[in-house]
Amino acid sequence: MSAPGRPKRELPLGGTTRSVQGGQLTAPRQLATAARWRAWEFVAWLAIWAAPLLFAQHAALINEIAILALFALSLDLILGYAGIVSLGHAAYFGAGAYGAALFAKHVMPDPLVGLAVGTAAGALLGAVTSPMIVRGTDLTRLMVTMGVALVLLELANKFDDITGGIDGLQGVVIGPLLGRFEFDLGARVASFYSLAVLFVVFVLLRRIVHSPLGVSMRALRDNRLRLQSIGLSVQARLAVVYTVGAALAGAAGALLTQTTGFVSLDVLEFHRSADVLLALVIGGTGWLWGGPIGAIAFKVMHDLLSAITTQYWTFWIGLFLVVLMLVGRERLLRPWTWWRQGSVR
Amino acid sequence: MLTLLFDGVAYGMLLFVLALGLAVTMGLMNFINLAHGAFAMAGGYCLIVLMQRHGWPFLACLPVAFALNALAGALLERSVYRPMYAKPHLDQVLFSIGLTFMAVAAVDYLAGSSPQTVHLPDWLRTRIEIGSGALQLGMGAYRLFIIVVCLMLALVLQATLNRTRFGSRLRAAVDDPRVAAGLGIPVNRVFLITFSVGSGLAGLGGALGADILGMDPTFPLKFMVYFLIVCAVGGTSSITGPLLAALVLGIADVMGKYYVPKLGGFIVYVLMIAILLWRPQGLFTREARR
Amino acid sequence: MTDVVLQTDALVKRFGGIVATDRVSLRVERGARHALIGPNGAGKTTLIHQIAGMLAPTSGRVLLGGRDITTLAPERRVALGLVRTFQINQLFGSLTPLQSLALAVGSRVGAAWRWWQPLGRDSGVAAESELLLQQFRLLDLAERPTRELPYGKRRLLEIGLAVAMKPSVLLLDEPAAGVPGAERQDILDTVAALPADVSVLLIEHDMDLVFNFARHITVMVNGSVLTEGTPAAIAADPRVRAVYLGDDHPGAPMAGVARG
Q1: Does residue B34 lie within any of the structural domains?
Q2: If you measure CA to CA, which chain A residue comes closest to C98?
């Protein structure tokens, strides 16, 4: 069937015509190129994997960065893709951390099973709380997310016979990874473990983001009304993405417990929610690399500032936040625009 | 129990004065300002410094706490807050968290991190007892003073809002800033004055309640949730909404901590979540917010 | 005899003291070219919102193919074949037209939850998307984010997304609104090219479009139906002239009001 030129009134819809414009279909190719990995992404991952080998004395820091990156990735799903501003994401991190800790202490010390348990704990809590999150305005959502984290913190504090309270849970011993690799003080196994989990999650998410589900999430962020009008459920999608985000946060929490052999109320505190939000914003929301990049930037900044001023580094972080928000992330990364007037966005 | 109720009312009135500035800012500028607690903290520390290091009487410190914070609010609004009005809520949240961090660290540096003690004047330490037995009402003079001052403030503010020209301009600007500007209302000036007064009120509240609330550098973070609860539950489009919400919150908190100390603040958070789920636009608003 | 695919039963919508929809009973037949006209504020879009499910009526029912869908969520109605467009474009700003159409088509064929393949890997979806792009003159803009498209093209995409759902009943809310002269014809052609078995309910102010397109017209004023009938009957009706076309504009119907 020939098609070129102005379609006439009786152009049929549907039908089985497969070639348009007399040539190959361009649409599948166009859609597929968006999903392909870029060259720099391969290079970046090679560099990341090399890091624990090249910077062996900083393995503990690398481990922390990997965990924060995973945590930030999980928040990116909720914030960057579903548009939910959450100040209580630490709730799921803490659920995973405590879940893995209690599992290791009372059931079995295998880390991979414990990781699954921590992830499941985060997912469960996420699924239970997601109906609360999908309603209301930005402010009420903010409050509810904060509230959930606060409630969990209070609970963990009150039931300190189970959780160890402020002093933390003692006696958490993690078994060797895959039965062979012991978690040692050098943190080498730990850093590879965390990086591996981060990598697997990243690859999975990369695939999801370009799938119909992933694109529908971006569509949801853009225009909920339109999403409904093409027959897709907003509520169901929000619930799914929130639960997955919570599950991954739980995984990050479990990793922290397992690689440090310790968990305390600190995992549920407000500053954890604020820190991960800041890290993600530095790296940029809505593209998966924001989490890892932001985590690296944040941790490095934190370390440098803490070395300079042990107690008052929050002041400089605060100042950085204020400037970042005033100037806007795009402009901050392009110093030549600082003196240009005109709209930022 | 009546004493508890009385204490709860005092606490609630305090929260009202503290949170009112935040409620109006949110309703007026649609701006989520999590740094509001920093003004309250500044007011509290102002009182402590003036009273303890310079020997000022209690009453004299209160207007100073108001004025200093009003001035600070005005300066900050003009310089750093104004560019943030048009930005998305996430940016506003992070911005105000950043300011809060700065304030917390600054106070920690200047005054140390231990909680400050307030030496109330003698006339505020007396106590009046009415009745006896289970229905005994014990009113501390301090809390009575707080209730009276806050009530007067509420009445003055309500009168300002309803009977003055500024009040009607403010109400117009809250309803629709663009239309208000179109009518020739100097919306920027209204914002400035409102923000300034709101910050001043927070400072006053911080000074007034320093003894009950406890002044230490983590104050803004500790109480931020309470202020936000007052705004979210009470709505941001009236004075009576936050007042009622603050009273409910104050009473619930005091009673909760007394009767069920094991759970304490937990009750308040659960209550808040429940209320927000039931009525996402707040308990006391009449129309749906944007 | 006549096959009614969509009807409303004494639909009422009150906003406080205002009655936006006043016992409206509308019937749309299979294959209809049915126009809904009326002055501004007559409640036409409010009616569409209720039919499509964005607004819950105060009382009354909406029936699709005889089935009561009054309490059904909007997305479920789309699955049943009831699709609408919006008076003000509702599009996915950051997605390209290709992605938007592929998403819509994928939704229709049940591929919306797939998470393991890239969007459009299903060649049926990709082929159909490309066909739609061509039909709606969007091929050369297929890879630009929607927010960068000119208004007329966005309007075309708005209609394209609705058509992608292969509706059985299509509600078009002022498709030509605000479209500049040059691109108007594209919209008109598109509306005229809709398949004969799709039942169309069209809201429009552009009388050219209405009288060229419609075989049946309903006139709404102040939330209720004033009258309905064939285009000729409506054009000749003095009541319609009085409230809508204007008493002192005899003869030919007025041109539509330009929208910003």
Answers
A1: yes
A2: A27
Number of helical H runs and strand E runs in chain B:
13, 2
CB contact under 8 A, A154 and B106: no
Among chain A residues, the shortest Cα distance to C108 is held by A231
Q: Where do the structural domains in chain A lie, given as residue ranges?
A: 38-269
> From the CA of B276, how many Å to the nearest CA of chain A?
7
Between A and B, how many residue pairs show a Cβ–Cβ distance under 8 A? 126
3-class DSSP assignment, residue C151: helix
The interface pTM score, or ipTM, of the predicted complex is 0.87
pTM of the full structure: 0.83
Asked if the structure places residue B170 within a domain, the reply is yes
pLDDT in tens, chain C (260 residues): 468 999 999 999 998 888 999 999 999 999 989 999 988 888 899 999 999 999 999 999 999 988 999 999 999 999 999 999 999 999 999 999 999 999 999 999 988 888 888 887 777 888 999 999 988 889 888 889 999 999 989 999 999 999 999 999 999 999 888 888 777 888 888 888 888 889 999 998 888 888 888 999 999 998 899 899 999 998 888 888 888 655 555 544 444 433 33
Position B101 in a domain: yes
Distance from CA of A222 to the nearest CA of B (A): 14
Residue ranges making up the domain that contains B57? 2-217
- Listing DSSP states for B29-44 in one string gives H----TTHHHHHHHHH
Whether A317 has its CB under 8 Å from any CB of chain B: the answer is yes
Number of domains in chain B: 1
The answer as to whether B100 is a domain residue is yes
Give all chains having 3 or more CB-to-CB distances under 8 Å with chain C: A
* CA distances, A220 to each of A82, A214, A226, A233, A236 (Å): 7, 10, 8, 9, 11
